[in-house]
């Protein structure tokens, strides 16, 4: 078949090239070729314990008591963490927790608030 991308609005496979952009004849949506090229990147999506995608600045809630290494402190269930930052690595959330300070969390132990 053709190597044209599907329409991002209606997922139609009947798109066509119109110079600097792609056009969908079914819904009339037009989008640039640069925008279509940017969507091909397979950036890993960081998801919470329920499968919801996370983004920088989100607020999350801890779903399990988490012991802090090198300390007798514990992050309790239900602790809200505001303004998270996503980072690469095993612990993929960088945040600041009130009363504890800066720390890194795994996304599998939080849910989006």
From TrEMBL:
Species of the source: Halomonas beimenensis
* Protein family (similarity comment): Belongs to the YjdM family.
- Which PANTHER family does the entry mention? PROTEIN YJDM, PROTEIN YJDM-RELATED
**Residue ranges of domain Protein YjdM N-terminal in the record:** 4-32
Disordered, as annotated region: 33-54
The domain of life is: Bacteria
- The name this protein carries in UniProt is Protein PhnA
Which residues are in the Protein YjdM C-terminal domain?
Answer: 46-113
Pfam families assigned to the protein according to its UniProt record, in alphabetical order: YjdM, Zn_Ribbon_YjdM
Against InterPro entries, the record matches this protein to: YjdM, YjdM_C, YjdM_N
């Amino acid at each position: 078949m053709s190597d044209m991308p599907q329409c991002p609005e209606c997922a139609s496979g009947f798109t066509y090239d119109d110079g600097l952009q792609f056009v969908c004849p079914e819904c009339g949506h037009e989008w640039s070729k640069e925008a279509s090229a940017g969507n091909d990147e397979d950036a890993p999506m960081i998801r919470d314990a329920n499968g919801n995608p996370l983004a920088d600045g989100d607020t999350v809630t801890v779903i399990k008591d988490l012991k802090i290494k090198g300390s007798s402190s514990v992050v309790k269930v239900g602790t809200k963490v505001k303004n998270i930052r996503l980072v690469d690595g095993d612990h993929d959330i960088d945040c600041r927790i009130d009363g504890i300070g800066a720390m890194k969390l795994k996304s599998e132990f939080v849910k989006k608030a």
